[in-house]
Specification:
single chain; 12 helices; 317 residues; alpha/beta; 7-stranded mixed β-sheet; 15 strands; 6-stranded mixed β-sheet
Length: 317
């Protein structure tokens, strides 16, 4: 395809080099919460769609980069949580020639999202529509299910290699770009707040497992990426120290939650204790209330603690 010159300025698009463009999906109207990434070239590829409510914003950003409705070749998501893949059905409709790519353990939920949406409704309640909207089904014939290691053709000899990386979710993959060395980490490395440099785990139920999550970080280290591209949020060039910090954060949160669990605390008391003990670790809580609230939206303490509690209960059964 021929890509036209982007129609700048577009305030939710940031060029990252290597024909990679970060798109702020403006999840629930916020800036800097969830990023999608467009890789231009012979076979343009969108990594992460954001939510359903973000889909028109992502579509318009892609169009501003000169990619028409029939030009987008691939849409790939790191996993099927709604902040990453909630817009898949809408984006598939906007770009009818695109192949939809997801790990094999998530593929059926994109074709039939009813079970996923019911589960999300139980967790989020009335906030579901505001934060995420509704994941629309995608024609199963358009979905490609990835094996644990697989390759996505970007054209011109460039590829995205997918690597199964559970721990956060059993349907999670990391994706490394053969040309730039960028590693799209999804939520496997946690959430990063570029304004403060804070990094915090993402350990929601029901799939969190500490050993598996740490193994995924080791896998990422072995891939020797040049840069980490966080879905929450943005690029980080200090790869090895960031992966080390991620492992440290996981251990801190697990150790604190284990303590609460061993003392017989219920979830509410465990959340309060972990929130208090970890607060000083993050600059986001020292700056202003708005930044602190944004950080909590990215990585809610109740979700993280409940995910670890669920894992502890499962390990003991």
């Amino acid at each position: 395809m021929t890509v036209t010159t982007p129609r700048w300025p577009v305030d939710n698009i940031t060029p990252l080099g290597g024909d990679v463009y970060e798109i702020d999906t403006r999840m629930a109207g916020y800036s800097g919460i969830t990023a999608g990434y467009l890789i231009l070239g012979d076979r343009p590829c969108l990594v992460e769609t954001g939510t359903s409510t973000s889909a028109p914003i992502v579509r318009d950003a892609i169009a501003s980069l000169g990619v028409g409705p029939d030009d987008l070749a691939t849409v790939v998501v790191t996993h099927i949580h709604l902040d990453h893949a909630g817009g898949v059905g809408d984006i598939a409709r906007f770009f009818p020639s695109a192949e939809i790519v997801v790990h094999e353990k998530g593929a059926r939920h994109l074709a039939d999202p009813s079970r996923l949406m019911a589960s999300a409704k139980m967790v989020w309640g009335d906030r579901l529509d505001t934060l995420f909207g509704t994941l629309s089904p995608t024609d199963a014939a358009r979905i490609r299910a990835l094996d644990d290691t697989d390759t996505i053709d970007l054209g011109g000899g460039r590829t995205l290699s997918s690597h199964y990386s559970p721990g956060h979710a059993k349907h999670h993959v990391g994706l490394i770009d053969s040309e730039t060395g960028d590693l799209y980490v999804g939520d496997a490395v946690g959430v990063y707040l570029p304004e403060t440099g804070d990094l915090r785990p993402a350990t929601p139920p029901p799939d969190f497992d500490l050993a598996t999550a740490l193994n995924s970080l080791e896998l990422f280290r072995a891939l020797s990426p040049q840069r980490l591209l966080f879905s929450h949020y943005g690029p980080v060039a200090d790869v090895q120290s960031t992966l080390e910090r991620s492992a440290e954060e996981l251990r801190v949160w697990v150790d604190l939650t284990k303590r609460a669990h061993s003392e017989g605390m219920d979830l509410d008391h465990a959340v309060a204790m972990v929130a208090e003990r970890t607060r000083e670790r993050y600059r986001a809580h020292q700056i202003d209330e708005e930044t602190s609230e944004k950080f909590e939206l990215l990585s809610p303490v109740p979700f993280n603690v409940s995910g670890i509690m669920h894992w502890l209960d499962r390990s003991e059964s």
